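On clarity, I found the account of how folds are encoded harder to follow than it need be. Since the whole study asks how a given chain folds, the encoding of that fold should be made plain. For illustration, here is how one protein appears when written out as sequence plus structure tokens:

:::
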Amino acid sequence: ARELRALGESKSAAFRHSQIGRTLRVLTLCANDSVDSSRENTTPALSTNYLKVRVNGSFSANRTLNVLISGETVTTLVGEPILSSSANSDWLDPVGASLR
């Protein structure tokens, strides 16, 4: 059982690492009340393939964002929101809103 857990953790880490440099669509989550200093000015999110992501910046919960993944921690990806200059951008939509 220990070997299987280690294999699973290794595969999970390799998959997270393979996402660096990619753009993922994420759903922002509620910020934790007990945020430590290493997570200051970030928003927790979950990608469409269920990876934990910390998005740089402060965003309200239940929003979808396109995020460029720039790095990782032990269990979480870190990324920058992609802000479109287009007036018709849908980079930040309430969940359930119809997309243009």
Remarks:
- Residues 33-37 have pLDDT under 50 and may be disordered.
- The chain has one domain: 2-94.
